[in-house]
Specification:
The structure is a single chain. The chain is of the alpha+beta class. The chain has helices at residues 2-22, 27-43, 47-53, 66-79; strands spanning 54-60, 80-95, 98-111, 116-131, 135-140. It has a five-stranded mixed β-sheet with strand order 1-5-4-3-2. Strand 3 and strand 4 (116-131) form a beta hairpin. Helix 2 (27-43) runs antiparallel to helix 3 (47-53). The longest helix is centred in the N-terminal third of the chain and has 21 residues, at 2-22. The model has no long low-confidence stretch (mean pLDDT 92).
Amino acid sequence: MWRYFLFLIFLVIFFYFLIDKYFLISEEEKVKKVIYQAKNACEEEDLDKISQILDKNYYDNFGHNYEKLLIRLYNIFNQYEDIKIYLLKEKIKVDNNLAICSLSVRAIGLAIDIKEYEVFYKDLLTLYLKKNKDWQIYYAK
């Protein structure tokens, strides 16, 4: 009888963690997922995925809008291969349909022209995301 009871407790705990991890994902976790999708898309040099993650009204402190950023990334992808992006620190704050992500980012890649690895981005980056249907990056500084 007590074995049956222990088994039931185990099942309840197991299903709780399963549901919590895969079905009841917090907004913070959803935002984090978008950040990692953007990171992976850059490493894979996949402009289509990146364009889906960015809001069409995107702009940033670096003078890019949506189109200019995609062109800039296209140029970077033609200058570097084997790109790796490291998120050294991350802090995510979600408030209703807005999220602010403070990231410490380092990006390295194999420079095609000199065949050496270079750090081509190293800085603190703040991304602002808004939720329409899904979370999208709409501003960066």
